[in-house]
Amino acid sequence: MSTQTVTRTPAGVRVGLRPPAEAYAFIGADHPLQPIAVLDVTLQEGEALAAIELATVCECDLRTTSSSRAATVPQILGHEQVGRIVALGPGDPALTADGRVLALGDRVVWAREVACGRCDECRTRSAGAVEQTAACRRPHRYGRERATRGWELSGGIATHVHLLAGTVVFRARDWVPAAVLAPAACAGAAATAALDSAARQQPLEGARVVISDAGMRGVTAAAMAAARGAVVTVLDADPVRRQRALRFGASAVFAPDVSPKGHDVALDFVGTTEAVDAVAARTRHGGLIVVAGDDAAPQRRLVQTASVISRELRVHVVEKVEPVHVGQALAFLERADAAVFAEAVGETVPLREAPRAFTAAPHLRLRTAIRP
Fold first, then answer.
1. Pairing of β 367-371 and β 107-110
2. pTM for the full predicted model
3. For a tag site, which of 123, 163, 185, 316 has the least CB within 10 Å?
4. Where are the domains of the chain?
5. Does domain 187-317 have CATH number 3.40.50.720?
């Protein structure tokens, strides 16, 4: 049985946890994830402590552990999760994205970045947390930043996450399965950002949309695009993933080298030259391509491929997933077919077996979940 003690100190509200909070730290590509224990957390004004209900391992986490992404260590991975508020900081209360007071017991999802409060944009802007985080030049990133003393619980592969002041937090409905909600902050938000970018330049009602892969971002975008009235084609080399995309709303699925051409809009979530070329070649002359991977700088170079230039495609690179996209993704997932989205999450492993979640075969299920 877990217990916690709450003590007010000059430094803030000290939350003692027994048994200790536990998290798994990435310390390098050649090392297994290492468990760490955190006996207490000190919360400042506007901060909160969330107990993790479920976390999912996303492509960003997998790239970090495979050494294909530069990472400062130690790092507590994980930014796709759902949890409940178990402690609050002193002073003025933390607020949800819609301005309501955050309360103990609230079931929540939160944005994966929070404004630093120190850069020029943060110092000169007087805005709410949503706008502040979107404008910040050096945001703190849950699950993507070096764990530091006082902010050890900074990622979702843990029993608890320490939510910093200014974090954009969204209340989640109690009856929606955690496996449906957890991917909202990354896969769901990325899909939303890509579609919003496309919709600003091309009406999606009746548009022919091609998506570069049937990963979690791709099938979520397929479901969202279909809900907006688009006719969706999904490309993927894996036949199992192709068939799954049909359940998410795709009208047709193909291997990348055999799919039809003439689409109005192409969405790429892979971020490689091959993937961009594949969807560009299947987009009509003068059509629109939206690239929405993880790193904007290399993506800007990718879109200058021969296929893009020769077809005079309009190109937009999604520079950043913003908190508003998390909220929009959460709202969509809460009304989506829960059975379809839940089945995308395969094995759920206990936190003590977290390293095993990073070795699951991605074609069998799009996400592996971790439950404390």
1. unpaired
2. 0.93
3. 123
4. 3-185+323-371, 187-317
5. yes
